[in-house]
Specification:
- By secondary structure, this protein is mainly beta.
- It has one domain: TonB-dependent receptor, beta-barrel domain (Maltoporin, Chain A, Beta Barrel).
- The protein is 6% helix and 54% strand.
- It contains six helices and 43 strands.
């Protein structure tokens, strides 16, 4: 993808040259007037007024011109589409060099996503070290980062704004996916104990450039994507990304439709605007539940991953529809304010089957008598969720001199309003129809007689204010200090008409230091905090109508991290190494004196480990992406859970935290073996881990291997072959007490790409 502010000449030759080299651009800002400034949204004006006095003098209405803004050079290989290495990110509010962010950041560029054919957003996360999954009882996965929950996707963002928590995601409109690891409530508010994930959507740029991809794969997969960018004026462009996907993977069908048009104007000028729409609709059948056997304390997967034993009438339908309006006002080349407004609706409708083994030849089924005649029972699970969200966010970034020091300031205000409806237990009457292990996808169906869903309602709003200053004490030493205040209010009402309310006000500090002795080296130390409110799961748990959990305060966490970031191989590659200690010290536990009627903040757990990130070119032909998380210690320090006589049940004090393997790693590497032929390969590794609620069990470690070969016929046409899970490894990917979701079986895909 060309640099968004690039303004190439209009000849075909120069357009191709610009796309390849991402040349430096010098853009003069348009004249300013009182009318120009009247275009600023109210939030931007308020924010600019509050911080501009600290930062710089804003040009008066009588000033007719502003100094030239220089768009920094984007040399060949720095765009998300051209390299596995990212050097900049917007995850820390405003565009920053990765070396200036005092936390571990893993960036999966568009090149990496395309190379590995990571069409499903969960596949992107699965190939990220430190990420694990709890298979939700109703099919909605709980993502874990460094062993800490992301709150049913509550810590997943899109372009820096909180994303909806209900829908299945696709990468057709992603420019890159960024993972910030460690506590980050100062930047993002509630959540973020283990970190946050940010999806960066593709943006229009000043060039006519189009790309179409068609993929044919196993499981009757047909996928067609289009990325169309049209320059509509000297300072405006329209970009449309679209996707159609069909698959029938041995009964687990999937049908996707997505479209994301974005129009951007005023590119590179004082006032830049964009308006975008996003719609994704996915209809499919879930295959999240496989029963397990236990041998020597290890969970043993048995049923092939591609086997589907649910009903033909089962389904998982999700959708996301939202619109975003954005405005960036540049005061000068060192300061700007960006304001965004987004409104969207997110839906999830699940009606599925939990698979259980019945009997084999009249006897209880065990691993030694499992056969094709083993009976498979199917227990219904149902869930419906709808969320309407409105978000407003205005962020200021600026550099200025004060008291003889250079300051880099970020400050902002954000508002989040969610109106949610949930029917978390909407299964209906169980069917008596059974199947056998030897007859997967047998075509059975059940009639839906459930009627109208009984919704609980959850309404929440959050107002956050933050400011952070980075002070250059010397030419090599920078100090960072930030503070955020959040005011969170929520109300919850059950179907019985019983309601609860919650209100919290929280402060989140962030302190750090950067030591950068040269352009190739950056050392850092950081202290940050996070919090989770009692309404994070769309209810005040426990679900007893007399629950006092609405009065339970937020969970609190802190993260200490030290590390270094280095430029290697003549700045062709970047290496990051960090040591972290994350601690949740105010964890909710059930009060043993009041049973399920109340929670208390008596729990404590921690995780200590190291993070490694390497991305870039070792040689001009050899490119590598490697991400590794090592957590030698992850421990429950305090808990009200009492171990039972059998030694089973949930983790207790002294146990290793569930869903926290000691080692997890991801490797991808490619080599240009011939001018037209590029080969690639990689692996994903995850060590042993226990499911929540089953302290006596562990899922075994696993390694999956992927391979790729790409042949380029011309500058505009290429053909790529991908084989995922090359050895067809059978492994437990997502875990829940009593069952697991298998990782995907071996898949072969052939992709034809054309540019025009």
């Amino acid at each position: 993808m060309a640099h968004p502010s690039a303004r190439p000449a209009r000849t075909k030759k120069s357009r191709q040259s610009t796309a390849k080299n991402h040349s430096a651009v010098v853009s003069s800002l348009t004249p300013t007037s009182s009318c120009d400034r009247a275009l600023l949204p109210l939030g931007a004006l308020m924010l600019a007024a509050s911080v501009s006095g600290w930062a710089q003098t804003v040009p008066s209405a009588t000033e007719k011109t502003l100094g030239t803004v220089i768009v920094k050079e984007k040399t060949e290989g720095t765009s998300s589409k051209a390299t596995l290495r990212a050097t900049e990110t917007g995850i820390g509010k405003g565009t920053q060099a990765l070396r200036d962010i005092p936390q571990s950041v893993t960036v999966m560029t568009e090149r990496l996503i395309d190379d590995r054919n990571l069409d499903d957003f969960r596949e992107v996360l699965r190939t990220t070290a430190g990420v694990t999954f709890q298979a939700g009882e109703t099919g909605e996965e709980d993502v874990r980062l460094r062993g800490f929950s992301l709150g049913l996707a509550g810590d997943i963002y899109t372009d820096g704004m909180r994303d909806g928590a209900l829908y299945e995601r696709d990468t057709f409109n992603n420019d890159r996916v960024e993972v910030l690891k460690g506590s980050a409530s100062m930047l993002f508010g509630k959540g973020s104990t283990g970190g946050i994930v940010n999806q960066v959507n593709k943006q229009p740029f000043l060039m006519d450039q189009h790309e179409v991809n068609y993929t044919l794969g196993t499981g009757k997969e047909h996928r067609l994507t289009g990325d169309f960018n049209l320059k509509t004026g000297e300072e405006s462009a329209l970009r449309i990304n679209a996707m159609v996907h069909e698959a029938d993977n041995y009964g687990a069908t999937s049908s996707k439709r997505g479209i994301a048009p974005t129009y951007r104007w005023g590119i590179g000028t004082r006032d830049e605007f964009s308006i975008g729409l996003y719609h994704l609709d996915i209809k499919g059948r879930p295959n999240y539940s496989h029963p397990w056997f236990i041998q020597d304390g290890l969970i043993v997967p048995t049923l092939p991953a591609r086997n589907y034993y649910g009903f033909d009438s089962d389904y998982l339908n999700t959708s996301a529809t939202y619109g975003t309006v954005s405005h960036t006002h540049r005061f000068d080349q060192d300061s700007q304010v960006t304001t965004r407004l987004r409104h969207g609706r997110y839906k999830r409708d699940l009606w599925a089957s939990v698979i259980r083994f019945g009997q084999t030849n009249g006897a209880p089924t065990a691993i030694n008598n499992l056969s094709d005649s083993t009976v498979v029972a199917r227990t219904p699970k149902g869930r419906i969720g709808i969320s309407d969200t409105t978000q407003f966010q205005s962020d200021y970034t600026g550099s200025f001199d004060a008291l003889g020091k250079k300051h880099s300031l970020i400050a902002g205000v954000d508002y989040y309003q969610e109106d949610a409806k949930r029917a978390n237990s909407f299964a209906g009457t169980a069917s008596t129809l059974t199947s056998t292990v030897g007859t997967p996808n047998n075509g059975d169906s059940r009639t839906d007689t459930r009627g109208e869903a009984p919704f609980n309602t959850f309404d929440a709003r959050n107002l956050g204010l933050y400011v952070q200053d980075t002070v250059a004490v010397t030419s090599t030493l920078k100090l960072i200090g930030g503070l955020r205040y959040d005011n969170f209010k929520a109300s919850y009402q059950t179907t019985a008409g019983v309601g609860h309310e919650s209100s919290d006000g929280l402060w989140s500090p962030r302190l750090g230091a950067l030591f950068q002795p040269d352009d190739n080296t950056s050392y850092y130390a950081l202290f940050g905090t996070s919090f989770n409110t009692s309404g994070d799961t769309y209810q005040f748990t426990p679900g007893n109508p007399s629950s006092k959990d609405a009065n339970t305060g937020p969970e609190k966490s802190r993260n200490i991290e030290v590390g270094g970031k280095f430029e290697l191989f003549e700045k062709r590659a970047s290496l990051g190494v960090s040591l972290f200690h994350s601690e949740k010290y105010n964890e909710r536990n059930t009060d043993p004196d009041t049973a399920s009627a109340q929670n208390v903040l008596s729990g404590k757990r921690h995780a200590t480990g190291m993070e490694f990130n390497l991305a870039g070119r070792i040689t001009p032909k050899w490119e590598v992406f490697y991400n590794h998380t090592w957590i030698p210690e992850a421990k429950i320090d305090e808990s009200n859970v009492v171990p039972n006589a059998a030694g089973t049940g949930a983790q207790v004090r002294g146990d290793r935290s569930a869903l926290t393997p000691k080692h997890s790693a991801s490797l991808w590497t490619t080599y240009q073996v011939m001018p037209k032929l590029r080969l690639g390969g990689g692996l994903t590794y995850r060590g042993k881990q226990s499911p929540e609620g089953a302290r006596h069990l562990q899922a075994d470690s696993f390694t999956t291997f992927d391979a790729m070969a790409e042949y380029t016929f011309s500058d505009s046409t290429s053909l790529k072959l991908n084989v995922a899970n090359l050895t067809n490894e059978l492994y437990a990917d997502s875990l829940y007490r009593g069952f697991y979701a298998p990782g995907a079986a071996r898949a072969v895909q052939l992709t034809l790409k054309t540019l025009f």
